[in-house]
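1st attempt posting a full record on here, be nice pls
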Amino acid sequence: MQKPSKAVDLLPFSGKSPILMCYNIIFEADVRFSNNQYLMKNLYPLRIFIVEDDLLYCSMLEYHLSLNPDYQVSKFHDAKSFLATLHQKPDVVSLDYSLPDMNGDAVLKEIKELSPDTKTIIVSGQEDVKIAIDLLKKGAYDYIVKDADTKERLWNALQHLRENHELRKELEDLKEEVARKYDFSNVIIGNSFNLKKVFSLMEKAATANITVSITGETGTGKELVAKSIHYNSPRKNKPFVAVNVAAIPKDLLESELFGHEKGSFTGSIARRIGKFEEANKGTLFLDEIGEMDMSMQAKLLRVLQEKEVTRVGSNEIIKIDVRIVVATHKNLSEEVKKGNFREDLYYRLLGLPIHLPPLRERENDVLLIARHFMEEFCRENNFGKKQLSAEASKKLLHHGFPGNVRELKSIIELACVMAEGEEILPEHLNILSSNVIENFVLKEATLKEFNIKLIQYYLDKNNYDVMKVARQLDVGKSTIYRMIQNKELYINKQYGYSVLN
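the predicted structure (as tokens):
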């Protein structure tokens, strides 16, 4: 007897119909052709176990599926050998319903218990609809009857599974990337003592389902801290929804937070869920909570106490499970004393307080953050590598940064554009002199440090004319020269080179 040259010859019906044989050969040729394009976009192999007691039929399925080199196919002829290997966690199992040692119902139950993520496709000679429906209810992905279309249907089912498999892998990779992105040390750059205290509180907040209140000046990174807490908490796979209370008109805030029904007010042409429903099982971040008016505060308090919302224009009560993180640049305890914020809501929201220190209180973190922004901006714009000169670094350290990290980012990005060489000089740093006097008051310093800042301010203002500054401040010019030589003061080399020589 001549050995069959193709897997189609193994089909029990292949010798009966030349037309069917021709169809099978064309289908397999089409499979080979389509693989060239399909495989180019697939990065993850699909592991498939075939469980089939008909040796010829099992070999045919193995050959057919192996036409796609991105499929890793293994075959088994009984339930015992298959279950002994199930610990390898295949992605898909093609399961014959009638096995000699166990029926498909029992094998499916074992698969769901031992490898719940594995998808099972039942391949059976039985056409009983009740059995098929029962197996699908118990968790089978598909039920395919053995006939002339079995191979094509199995192939299509695997293609769909493959696409879902790719999406799951991409989602897992994305989640890992988000987790790395919002790692505490990646979100807030620095190693100052004040910042280490913030990290410690963030870690506590991430492990407990407690309300978090974040305070700090504008530009200190309050939303980044909120995201970091969420993406490092048990709720990390659920939504993070941010709402800027100050940016929403007070007449629309209730609808934005709680949702509304169609026709509940002019312009409500359809039902819309609110941010609380959107954030269910996840985290709702209410930024600038201090800007909420008193009437809305009362409604928010009730939602937090009862853990339920009612859409505008509806009587239906909707239960919610949401973690609340709030942020404000205001002192809420002072707002309570002034009568601008409800005391009961204040204590409800206080939870675990985290205060973000302003940049001027973070020691040398300024230079670490500046270097980060500089490298990031140069990489995004294909600039060469740049670095801060010693004088530029000192100028940054002397500045109080009322706009905090946001202001520093703007200054550094402009400096990268203005600097023609690899080095960023003091004159490339666009620090407004009008902020200097305010910085004197904002930043704690010794009398000597105040004197240095004051003289530096007048040097910058007067194009580094030492004689003019000495007259204005009634200080000896030799004193200023000495401070320059001791590097307590810096001058623009364009103006001061001859003076120092």
